[in-house]
Amino acid sequence: MKPRDRLRIAMQKSGRLTEPALDLLNRCGLTFRQSRDKLFLFGEGEPVDLLLVRDDDIPGLIAQGVCDLGIVGRNVLSEFQLTAGREGPALSEWRSLGFGRCRLSIAVPQEFDYREPAQLQGMRIATSYPGLLGEWLRTNGVDAGVVTLAGSVEIAPRLGTADAICDLVQSGGTLVANQLREADVLLESEAVLTGPEALPTDERGDMIDLLLKRLDGVIQVRESRLLLLQTSRSALDAVIRLLPGGPQPTLLPVAGQPDQLMLQALCAGEVSWRQLEEIKKAGAREMFVLPVEKMLA
Ligand code: ATP
Ligand code: ZN
User: Fold this and answer.
1) How much is the pTM?
2) CATH code (residue 156)
3) Ligand 1 in reach of 110 Cβ (< 6 A)
4) Is position 296 within any domain?
5) 65 and 24 both lie in a single domain
6) Do 137 and 17 lie in a common domain?
């Protein structure tokens, strides 16, 4: 294959992961020129292009070297690793991205009193994830039939083609609508950034390094808040004790008020009204909670 000097990222063309993945890449400073076929989006600022494909094709495209990185559900990546055999480079999960959360679960008819995997012995289980299900059955020493279906797995029990299913669950609404209930969890999934275990050593490797650093900045601060407040020196200890978790706060002098300090703290999550009121009672005032957009440590 011809060496490339531009990085190529594969992501889902249209589906649950499309919007949040594009949004994440935008936050990392990557913007793309819309092309008419929308299969290939040319990167405008940085030498990074996007390939828009079905999510199931993403691991294979990376394994073949067509793309350098991909954004895909852990469920799809793990299934690929279990079923694709050993040809091509091994894929790594470089980062968890915090969206597209769901579970790969066993679901059984509502009247089935499920307590343990052994009860599935001899049953037929419908799934689009034969690799992951097969491994789970083996690990649990259960001998069950695996019925591989490309889609509409949840109606298999009603159609009589399976006794139970193994499928993705988010809220459980689809299961209830099909008179099924979640019985056991095989895999906790979310969108991940995947790529070959050995990253390219040319310019693309440098670009991946840069992208990972920016991603870390975005992911780390996505939930973070910057808390700003004023406090007297005498109340400082009490105020600090009440600060929501995070690294050490920064203290700054306040011009003309030697007994006052300005405090700045990065908090790991939401700061509630209740917390603010408690901190205020301890002696703080002029409090601000700001969302954080970018961070470069
Ligand atoms: P295509 O194959 O055309 O790209 P798809 O139908 O396989 O689309 P989606 O339904 O958009 O894909 O799901 C993409 C990913 O979103 C899943 O692989 C999974 O990681 C994640 N996901 C999150 N919640 C759910 C859910 N309730 N059902 C299915 N997938 C979910
Ligand atoms: Zn798919």
Assistant:
1) 0.86
2) 3.40.190.10
3) no
4) no
5) yes
6) no
Instruction: Look at ligand 1, atom 3, and give the residue with the nearest C-alpha.
Output: 54
User: Does the CB atom of residue 102 touch ligand 1 within 6 A?
Assistant: yes
- Residue 77: phi and psi, rounded to 5, are -65, -45
Which pLDDT does position 176 carry in this prediction? 95
Domain count, the chain: 3
Is 104 near ligand 1, meaning CB less than 6 Å away?
no
CB 128 less than 6 A from any atom of ligand 1: no
What pLDDT does residue 8 have?
A: 97
Q: Which residue has the higher pLDDT, 202 or 187?
A: 187
Q: Which of 149, 151, 132 is nearest to 15 (CA)?
A: 151
Are 37 and 145 in a shared domain? Answer: no
Ligand 1, atom nearest to 100 Cα:
23
Q: What is the average pLDDT value for the chain, to the nearest integer? A: 93
- List the one residue out of 190, 172, 20 whose CA is nearest residue 96: 190
Domain holding 159, by residue range, is 102-189
Q: How far is the CA of 156 from the centre of ligand 2 (A)?
A: 19
The environment of the single-atom ion ligand 2, i.e. residues with CB closer than 5 A, is 55-56
Give the residue-averaged pLDDT of 268-273. Answer: 87
* 37 and 93 together in one domain: yes
Cα separation, 199 vs 218, in Å, equals 22
